[in-house]
Amino acid sequence: MPESRIKKPIWISHRGYTANEVENTYAAFKAAVDIGFTSLETDLRITRDDHIVLIHDHTLSRLANDNRSVSDLNRREIESFKLANGERFFFLDQFMESFGSCAWTFDIKPEKGKQTIQRLASWIRKNDDLHRFVSRVKFLTWKPDHEKMLNACFPGADYYARKTECWRAGLAAFFGLPALGGIKANRTYALPASLRNISLFKQSIVSRFHNRNAKNIAFLPASDDLVKKALNANFDEILTNGKIL
Fold first, then answer.
1. Which of 28, 45, 175, 212 lies at a 20 to 30 A Cα distance from 86?
2. Of the candidates 171, 193, 170, the residue with the CA atom closest to the CA atom of residue 241
């Protein structure tokens, strides 16, 4: 029988709290922790000299008005940019030192993903306890071979279902046919608030995942009303750009 799901969700701050700060910076993560978040989501990319930096985009264009790719720059070059809030780009070693008491969601970006994973594994072996790391991290990957590689490096780590898995599972659950969705026990599937104006934040849909011992994360509800719908639908996790309600 599936376990009872009547419990508070895990609240995850998406790239930190960015109401007044630039995403993926120390200030954004500190703001999130200050308002009560204990779980932080961020993006991992690798530099030319094998440092892991927390940047969503593959170039610096949006945040620093520079069109070069992250992987074409070294750490010193990336650290030289000052962002809109006066902060600098944040690196993984700094993040883990500053927010070591939090849980982490690491989005392994597909470009240079294998190199990122190799460097992450090497860094953890030298600087952290593997079991401690695995107990607090959850990964999102964009390619199946990247998940396989991570699983070899970090046995027992937890993962989110990839985008195509989520679409297939979500549609199957919506139509009341979860057996056709390939839903796997203990895997976490993201659901957006709606599909072509049809609400997906419904307990009837979420329960179809729970009945197969899977989990759901509400993907970036854009308003307090949508967050309340996610709470009423009994999501296991809520990924948000906003505050905890």
1. 45
2. 193
CA distances from 21 to 31, 58, 63, 182 (A): 8, 20, 12, 39
Token pair recorded at residue 72: 């074409």
User: Percentage of the chain with pLDDT > 90?
Assistant: 94
Tokens standing for 108? 């392994």
Which of 131, 159, 187 is the C-terminal boundary of a domain? 159
The kind and range of the H/E element at 52 are strand 52-54
Q: What is the DSSP letter of 8?
A: P
Same domain, 30 and 149: yes
Contact 10, 41 (CB under 8 A): no
Closest to 24 (Cα-Cα) out of 35, 39, 34, 13: 13
DSSP 3: P
Q: Could you read off the pLDDT of 86-133 as tens digits, one per residue?
A: 999 999 999 999 999 999 999 999 999 999 999 999 999 999 899 999
pLDDT band of residue 3 (cuts 50, 70, 90) is: very low
Handedness of CA 201, 213, 189, 46 (dihedral sign): positive
Please state, in angstroms and rounded to a whole number, the distance separating the CA atoms of residues 109 and 141: 7
Q: What is the pTM of this model?
A: 0.95
Phi and psi angles of residue 241, each rounded to the nearest 5 degrees, phi first: -90, -5
Q: Please indicate, yes or no, if residue 140 is contained in any of the structural domains.
A: yes
Examine the domain organization and report whether 80 and 68 are in the same domain: yes
- Report the number of distinct structural domains present in the chain: 2
